[in-house]
TrEMBL record, chains A, B, C, D:
Localization of this protein: Mitochondrion intermembrane space
Top-level taxon of the source organism: Eukaryota
Subunit structure comment from the entry: Homotetramer.
Family, per entry: In the C-terminal section; belongs to the FMN-dependent alpha-hydroxy acid dehydrogenase family.
CDD domains in UniProt: FCB2_FMN
Single GO biological process annotation from the record: lactate metabolic process
Source organism per UniProt: Penicillium vulpinum
Catalysed reactions, semicolon-separated: (S)-lactate + 2 Fe(III)-[cytochrome c] = 2 Fe(II)-[cytochrome c] + pyruvate + 2 H(+)
GO cellular component: mitochondrial intermembrane space
Name of this chain's protein: L-lactate dehydrogenase (cytochrome)
UniProt keywords, alphabetically: Flavoprotein, FMN, Heme, Iron, Metal-binding, Mitochondrion, Oxidoreductase
Length: 499, 499, 499, 499
């Protein structure tokens, strides 16, 4: 037995609700009193009572979690891991299949566009992680509409423009970026990759784009800041806590550490129901353990488990307070109609993100790009288009999507899931390639449209009539008629070779 | 042989048209003279002549049927069931498959939305029962359009509204309800569950919503009333009998027993052809044996068999008579264009239900929600929107559907089939969960839209442009071209693992 | 050897182009000189040179063909059929499969609508016959649009109308009919049934509807006339021959035999290419052998083979001549835009049929029902709606389709293929049931719409906005995105029963 | 060893980057110094270092390539091929499958329309060749829209027009053609057929249509010119070289050799990314080796490899220069909005081709036919419709497509891929039949529309409302609802024959 270390046997004695010890990263902790406060519920902790919980704990808690939320008196010190009984894992056929698929993964070079990363990630990610990232609200209609909406906008390119030199750089909230997209905030990065959000930090640096840091990150906020290089710029995405003091500390800390924008999420007074996520039976808590209580329904999936601290009472009245506590530009993330954009201007906000939260909140909410087409003419009509920066996210997969948003008048375009998928499947190299593919597409497409700089992109280059009719449907098919129809056939190949 | 009881052998002697006895619930009845009057035809009774018919009789006749329709002299008294020969049932592979599926049913907790109950019910219900509930008119285009129509309406949510406290209660016909939906009338509840409509009565009580009692219930009207608890409110749905005295008795009895609304069905002078139902070869009569005669075509499915008493001559001229016989509010159920809503106001009706009878009557009739969008502006234009309560039903599956109807101006939203499916698959617990899911969705979605009460829901929160173009179709596909097209592929996984 | 009869051996000697005899119905004919004149080509005759050709000849030639087109000197007299060598038929696996399917045909009672007959016919008809009936022009887009167009028109029914008594009779070209549809002309009835068009004659009589007799019938014109019963009314459909004297004789003969309407086909100066038909390798001639010549491409399918006599030079200048040779009302069949309807009025025509020839002629021609919506307002604007009767055909499968046309203002609705399919699958009983189903649907749907007679059907009962946008398409799908999407799933059934 | 010839062994010694010889058509060449200049990259050459490269070289280099680009001193003279070691080819299962399919190819007569050739070609072409021809930009939405757009335009045909004589000839850039389509320029003809573009030259002569000669042909320009017969007319498609002197020489040579039109491609400052092509791993260089350098990414597919010489700086300023160096009519190929057509008129161009490069360049660029509908009214409004000839290409598969373009006002219609597919599958006979099929369709459809000459085709004959709404989409489906729906079924056939 190693000196001064606890034995596995000793820890194993504390395997009940009455006395519950767990091992994390080789150290033991007494979590008996913490049990009822765990946002993810007691059940998942008790499963590991008296045992090593590292593997389960790791992906969804920032490393500073135990220091922050567990009194030092409960830190029991190192365990002689050699004495801890190894549990034999039950054979999981789904996991075995996944490992087999991973062994046959396509090479990164075979990914030619952002959808390709998603197609690969779907096969190689853990089921619960995939469900958390890929799910949307209700029937996921809005989630899919987000990308589909771009297909309602078509180009009116100009020819015979000298497009030898293309400059696709732009400026967002005072920061010069190499290309007008940014990495938008998405939760629980370690579900997809052991290093979590810092992978995105590194890729953002490589490509000189801005990263928006999520409140619900797997990495700690400071870890993500620490990963910043050179004059790299980051923004903070903020879920506002019911306890405004916690929020104040977060904001002030972010500004001190150099964040250049405060994006307040306004489309999530309550996090959405995502049935795919719920069905995947994921019930582990997220990392951002801001509040306690065990009265949340644990069967509601990851999204609900990690968001109980969010304040549904947040309102326009809070905006002046935010302006009083920070000098960072204030941007409302999740604005969904022109009325609220105009109000944001009047409230003195510096920007809005037209977004429906990746289709994860309100079903049949309109896509950001559709709202953008509604918003910009109203701003121009009032001469207000310079008073506020209008960002948009949701469904962006191609440089053509980015260009359409720019033609309408967007300042910057947020991209979330595609980089998560690239990261989950291929790590930093994946995100790097995803960004490079977008840049390649962007350069080419600007050439093909006949614009040499972002400033030259304007509404006359697009045809938006497809948005005018709203969301029309198609008459349900007459099954009997369709099935009785005998479709035409191409020439049939012979059954045997001709001689 | 038990004292004073008939023997099975004795009953079995009366096994022909000339002398036909049947056993129901351990008692024998002489139905010889009743045979030609049976609305479901003689054939189905003769199949059980001299035998125990309980299993066939039970699900589709209210318990008071024999007392009501068979003279006491034909009640032959108890049978010594030990002496009744047990028939061996023929092996039915479809039924065996169904039982096997039932043994593997998903747990109730796995149902996350109203469609889930339907998906389960489809697998575990008897084929004929499923066909009766799930079928619609002709090609079932209207039936499907009813839900699809909601997808043409999209949200324009407001942000930064304090939505901590959500009040989703409302008032319909003077009754305060916890949420603006009610259980609409649907026929033959015992096809789905042995207890029939009283299951819905109990669930409605648990959730403080109104139940509308159907004329064509499997339970007797009084059974459903008796199941009422506390100050629970029920309404009566009425098919008007050719014999108005029968109708008068029904209405007066309902009012006396406390019903708070009279919903006169006006979209069914003749019950629709539902081919799925007809094809399922269901030919048993319904419970509401109001009229006799055997001249109805038995191959027309359940709907036609049970509805021969309905009066196709019902007209606007009858409305004053209804107003003269009852003080209950009078609501026309099945109104389908603005002209008739205006006429209903003028006729002094208290409400209308914009409905196409669940897509079971007239094919390519418009959905209730589409008619609502036509009706409300016309009412508002005349300042009549307070003179009449406008209900709507058909295709409601999500709280977002309910909210869209409320935004347009509906007072209440009827839901039928989803609760039948929940009941058929999981009984009372199923209906309870279905209602709870709707409440959970409703609370969340009102938050996400930025409305704290039903009164705050208004047309500016929705985009209804998708309804403007009517019902456009898509050009039939060019099969040859589509098949010759070689679709893009995602990266292929390798055939063998990399080494 | 029977006295006075030819032997099979004798006939078999004449088995070449130089001397070609064939046996039909037990008689021999010398067709050597006729060979080059055969509209269906020499090849198919030479296949039977010296042999019994009855089975091949029968379905596609009217019985008077040989008398009409072969000089009496070539009629060689009866053959002793006992001496004719029986050819063993090659085993045809497709035909064997078809016979097996026929043995398992659903009973007629299982057909609940007109599509059902088509579904059965597709399985039990000979491939070439099915291809001839079911094929359309080019990609068959117009053929399918014909039915789909009805789904763009939705109902605005009226409630509380006394609909106990429904009168669906109407008058077309002076003839009272029981219901406002007629049997429109379709070619080659014997492909579907050995008795050919007279089956339709009998069914039309049973249901008191008008039959339009086709120029290209399998039965002779007089056979069809002879099958008429009582005061049954028939019309003549006319393809105009390059030789106007032939046309004059046909018209005069039809009028003399009591035809009550002359429908001149104007949408077929050349019969369409129908690739399904061509691909089925059908190359036999039709019955109406009006002209000779062998320069037609035999690989063009049945339609082209039988239509070489049609005059592509037919023009408005011919109308006065038609008026001069007959007192029958003159109706132009195949009018496709409002301009030509107005011109028809001015030319003194009694009617038009808005039709695209069942989608068999010009691809992406509009449906008759769409043209009707264009035509009627223009007629009413000029007060001309009584000056001409407007018929419509194409894609009618449901009584709702008929009612929509009547609401728009049509006088009568032609139905073709559905009756052919009913006849092909079930003979006269099939057509009888098809017509009865339409009547049942019609009665019910008029009740549900709130109209008691054809006269009450009017434009306010329908919503035609779906026609306003023309023929819009849908953006081609993004395959990669769709395939990467992971669709929602219903609750999964357990793999094993719960214990 | 044959006298004066090199031996295989000798050549095989030079099998490295330092000394690299290859054999082509029995002659050896020293390409050591050329290696870095090869547009297709060094790798593909080095694969054949010291070996016979004929089979690889042949399909994608014009025969004069070596003479043009390799100094005579590097031409090492004939090789005694008997001494060259034969490499055994590795068994390629995909190629074996293809050969098997070729052995069962449908006969040419089974192709009834242009799609049929595509369906056959897809099965019998080499994968890389198929990928190069069939691929489009990004998600290939525009590529498919090109054909689909024609389905948004429907006909309004006129009846009773004497259409016995149809004249479908027309005049383009002063040349009388038999029918208003031309063979548009497409690259790398030898991928599909060993003879390459001259096959199209021959077919164009047979049918009296114009051929546009591509810059990126597999055959040399002069070979294609040499194949011209009689007064056959050809045009030149031009990619403009960064080195204008090269361009000048090409233009002057073309004019001298009799080309009658100069089509300057303006929609391709950079050749598009075609992922299907890239995925097929095709990396061989095209024939038109105008510039060197090895800095192009070889994984970008054929399109990128062969186009590095194209000048992205080409602009309106270059037009006067072109007018100064040639008397050929100047046509801009790839114009995509009305503004640029008007500018082309003002710049003195003789024509424009409304085209998106077959959907191979900018994704969600509008189809040529849609742009045509935008352009012609603007030209007519200004009275400019005679000042410029408007051509259109993209997605043309049917004569109806051609006729729609003519009705809108097009002078001529370009067809590319369909002829490539016909050539690839069936050689000259295939192209011949494809053209004949179009002529047959054209003649028939003009009859059916009621137009006897191209001049009679006008906008009143078509309904273009389907284009007005832009590119609308459909709401994404609700998977759960759709899957829970139980579709209607046709009558079921019995399991066993009836007795």
């Amino acid at each position: 037995m190693s000196e001064g270390k606890l034995t596995g046997a000793k820890v194993a004695e504390h395997n009940s609700k009455d006395s519950c010890w767990v091992i994390v990263h080789g150290k033991a902790y007494d979590v008996t009193e913490f049990l009822p406060e765990h946002p993810g519920g007691q059940k998942i902790i008790l499963k590991y009572a008296g045992k090593d919980a590292t593997e389960e704990f790791e992906p969804i808690h920032p490393p500073d979690t135990l220091d922050k939320f567990l009194d030092q008196s409960k830190h029991l010190g190192p365990v002689d891991m050699a004495t801890v009984e190894q549990e034999e894992k039950e054979f999981d056929p789904e996991e075995a299949d996944r490992q087999e698929r991973i062994s046959r993964m396509p090479s990164l070079e075979a990914c030619y566009n952002l959808m390709d990363f998603e197609a690969v990630a779907r096969q190689v990610m853990k089921k619960t992680a995939w469900a958390y990232y890929s799910s949307g609200a209700d029937d996921e209609i809005t989630m899919r509409e987000n990308h589909a909406a771009f297909h309602k906008i078509w180009f009116r390119p100009r020819i015979l423009v000298d497009v030898e030199h293309i400059d696709m750089s732009t400026t967002m909230l005072g920061t010069k970026c190499s290309i007008p997209f940014y990495v938008t905030a998405t939760a629980l990065g370690k579900l997809g990759h052991p290093e979590g959000e810092v992978v995105l930090t590194k890729a953002s640096h490589q490509h000189n784009v801005v990263q928006m840091i999520p409140t619900l990150a797997s990495c700690s906020f400071d870890e993500i800041l620490d990963a910043k290089q050179g004059d790299q710029v980051q923004w903070l995405q903020l879920y506002v806590n019911k306890d405004r003091e916690i929020t104040r500390k977060i904001v002030e800390h972010a500004e001190k550490r150099g964040c250049k924008g405060l994006f307040i999420t306004v489309d999530a007074p309550q996090l959405g129901r995502r049935e795919k996520d719920m069905r995947s039976k994921f019930s582990d808590p997220g990392s951002n353990v801001q509040s306690g209580g065990d009265n949340i329904d644990r069967s509601q999936g990851a999204a609900r488990a990690i968001s109980s601290f969010i304040d549904p009472a947040l309102s326009w009245k809070d905006i002046p307070w935010f302006k009083s506590i920070t000098n960072m530009p204030i941007v409302l993330k999740g604005v969904q109609c022109v009325e609220d954009v105009l109000r944001a201007v009047e409230a003195g906000c510096d920007g809005v993100v037209l977004s429906n939260h990746g289709g994860r909140q309100l079903e049949t909410a309109r896509s950001g790009i559709e709202v953008l087409a509604e918003v910009m003419p109203a701003l121009r009509e009032r001469g207000w288009e310079k008073r506020i920066e209008v960002f948009v996210d949701g469904g962006v997969r191609r440089a053509t999507d980015i260009i359409k948003a720019l033609c309408l008048g967007a300042t910057g375009i947020g991209i979330g899931r595609p980089f998560l998928y690239a990261m989950s499947a291929y790590g930093l190299d994946g995100v790097d390639r995803a960004m490079q593919l977008l840049k390649d597409e962007m350069e080419m497409n600007m050439r093909l449209i006949g614009a040499t700089s972002v400033a030259e992109l304007n509404p006359s280059l697009i045809d938006t009539r497809g948005l005018l009719g709203g969301h029309s449907g198609v008459v349900p098919s007459d099954t009997l008629g369709l099935r009785a129809y005998d479709p035409l056939e191409a020439p049939r190949f012979n059954e045997k070779p001709k001689l």
